Amino acid sequence: MIIAIDGPAAAGKGTLARRLAQTLGLPYLDTGLLYRATAKRVLEAGGDPADAQAAAAAARELTEADTAREDLRDAATSRAASQVASIPAVRAALLAYQRGYGGGRGAVLDGRDIGTVIFPDADVKLFVTASVEARAKRRQAEFTARGERVNLAEVIAEVAARDEADRTRAAAPLIPAEDAILIDTTSLDADQAFSLALELVRRKLGRE
Ligand code: DC
Questions:
Q1: pLDDT tens column, 2-26
Q2: What is the third-level CATH fold of 2-202?
Q3: Of the chain's two ends, which shows fewer C-beta atoms within 10 Å, N or C?
Q4: Containing H/E element for 109?
């Protein structure tokens, strides 16, 4: 069983995907980490994340240790991740790993193009979204929890810029699959979003 969870940054996809995976007994892959780890490799080698050759080489050389790093969520890595994610050769290099991950006993995967490109035949597709303000507040809370102080207006601008880049890129842009179920988490807390998603997944699977 493949459950594809797509949506913009900080919409609550990760928390939701992890909890669904736990409840359904499936492995969980946060595919954003693949792009973040690719970006980190390029940055640490002193390269340019917009350089297609350097970024694709980094994506091909990615190891589990790269994606397990704790320092992939800072602002510079997030920006660079968005840049490498717009390069078709990077996306191509990461495709087989994602398909292979879900190919065995199934998985919950979250990202931007899981339901549209990676697993167009996924059993369930959720598109999780929320207003820019709500998402920026959640991102700010994550920074605060890590002891980093950030200005809300700056986080809103950052989230909006990344949305725009992810939506308007030519390669696998962020768009809901035609058969995705939309979940707007603007006024839902994590528990409410999880209950709703689980109900939708059970209903969808029950119908088949
Ligand atoms: O979900 P995230 O914020 O960790 O993703 C980091 C970047 O990677 C983001 O700019 C979008 C991109 N991404 C992507 O293009 N496709 C995916 N399946 C997952 C992430």
A1: 999 999 988 999 999 999 999 999 9
A2: Rossmann fold (3.40.50)
A3: C
A4: strand 107-111
